[in-house]
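hey can u check if this looks right to u? its 250 residues, i copy pasted from the old doc so theres a chance i mangled smth
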Amino acid sequence: MSSSDLRPGEWQARCELAALYRLIAHYRMTDLIDTHITLRLPGTSELFLINRYGVPFERMTASDLVLIDLEGRPQPGPFVEQRVNAAGFVIHSAIHAARPDLHCVIHTHTAAGMAVAAQRDGLLPLTQHALKFYGHLAYHTYEGIALSLDERARLVADLGPHKAMILRNHGLLVGGATPAEAFHEIYFLERACQAQIQALAGGMALHYPSEAVCQHTAAQFQADGAEGLIDLAWQAALSLIEDQRQDWCR
């Protein structure tokens, strides 16, 4: 496949998104063929890439990604297979349409993420990882499998200005300006959920940081310079699957 057959910047975006799919698999945040990651096509506001439904994340390639618009219509191109997950389209199109700052969106169904999503109090301020989201985490009430276009407005309203959201009784949803930032968000949120489930399972009384410490730590995560650390972590994570590069970028 030649990059000249695609829109400007599309092949690079496809390779980067395919790598992100494989990283999510590497960190065991997959759910068979379900869940989804999307990336807005550079230079556009209404086109984004999503996985071809049925391909395991571990085997995702640049050619497996489908370019669709905000109405779910596959765009003309060199790739034949165009099937996408309907619920994935509903969730991701809502975020891409309403949040131009979130170019990459990740949705997962991990055991820890679903467990916290099922708990009344949601994510607790128990760990440093959880405090990254203190005051910066949204919640969306479960409405069934996300097949109704009407749910998009409620998803967006619940997300508000945040980059991370717990879909109650369902899973986790994050977004970022880049795949690196979105990966950083889902990694920290997932680890926070894992730690919470294990802490609660211990059966001992829990220690909570003070309100002042919670706010201070959250502000530290939002401080200038975080972007450089996010990119550094992204490159470190990619190095773990470097031997797959020629496979994902095809």
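The chain is about 40% helix and 15% strand.
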